[in-house]
Amino acid sequence: MITGTTKLIAHLGYPTESFKAPLIYNPYFEKNGIDAVVVPMGCRPEDYPAFLKLLFRLSNIHGALITMPHKISTMALLDKTSTNAKVAGSCNAVRLGSDGRLIGDMFDGEGFVRGVLRKGKKVEGAHALIAGAGGVGSAIAASLAQAGVEHLAIFDANQTTATALLDRLRKYYPQLDVTVGSADPEGFDIVVNATPLGMRRGDPLPIDIDRISPSTFVGEVVLTREITPFLEAVRARGCAFQVGTDMLFEQIPAYLEFFEFPTTTADNLRAIAKLG
């Protein structure tokens, strides 16, 4: 039941038809007696800068989840941003600080890293390769750097995109050994597919499977199918792996902490979500 005391969390993006967050957060809020609600709000890009500022003038607004196409443009509208958001170059959560300032963070990478750690894979001191330096790849790179990887290799077909991420990583993590240019997975402890490859039937694999070690932990970000051709291939080689939806569910406890709500586990969220 939504009342006059309910804290509103806007889910901002355009279009809204594919939004899943309300089907995860709202059952959790209801089950745990938390007086809050996530509401999808479709906002076109040309209206977004003005709308975000007005939204946070509502007396009952608590925060916002940010999705496409607004993750990058949000950065210029904030008063304070986390290091993760700065390295990623994008933001997917905003809350109102006690002083009225807008505070932004990025949790895509945090969800990925939490999932890896919960599966027992060590991140600190690891050598990691990320294929894809776009929004999600940049977010994962930021969180792996924060978690203490020793070496991070970035590959993207767009050299400008890869170099821009390299520059941001070197600015905020000057001690990190980071390189750009190769998708060769040999010798890496963690390999991540952060490209869209795997969303469509017939897509090529993002890396050379024959050169990946069975001891390598592999992560996927594609959400449209659980076991992508890439994961099928690395599973056949004996690799431990993480499916794309794990990143989604693992980041929600971090969101809840950011919004100062009682938090939970990814397993609990999976059990009560109403995704159909």
Which series of helices and strands comes N to C? EHEHEEHEEHEHEHEEEHEHH
Backbone structural class: alpha/beta
Q: What's the average pLDDT? A: 95
Q: What share of residues are in beta strands?
A: 15-25%
Low-confidence stretches: none
Helices and strands, with pairings:
Layout: E1 7-13, H1 22-31, E2 36-42, H2 48-55, E3 61-66, E4 80-81, H3 83-88, E5 93-96, E6 102-105, H4 108-118, E7 127-131, H5 135-146, E8 151-155, H6 159-172, E9 177-180, E10 190-193, E11 217-220, H7 229-236, E12 241-242, H8 244-258, H9 266-272
Parallel strand pairs: 1-2, 1-3, 4-6, 7-8, 7-10, 8-9, 10-11, 11-12
Antiparallel strand pairs: 3-5, 5-6
Search tags:
9 helices, 6-stranded parallel sheet, 33% helix, 276 residues, alpha/beta, single chain, 6-stranded mixed sheet
Structural description of this entry:
- The protein is of the alpha/beta class and 276 residues long.
- It contains nine helices and twelve strands.
- The protein has helices at residues 22-31, 48-55, 83-88, 108-118, 135-146, 159-172, 229-236, 244-258, 266-272; strands spanning 7-13, 36-42, 61-66, 80-81, 93-96, 102-105, 127-131, 151-155, 177-180, 190-193, 217-220, 241-242.
- The strands form two sheets. It has a six-stranded mixed β-sheet with strand order 2-1-3-5-6-4. Strands 9-8-7-10-11-12 form a six-stranded parallel β-sheet, with helices on both faces.
- Strand 11, helix 7 and strand 12 (241-242) form a beta-alpha-beta unit.
- The longest helix has 15 residues, at 244-258.
- The model has no long low-confidence stretch (mean pLDDT 95).
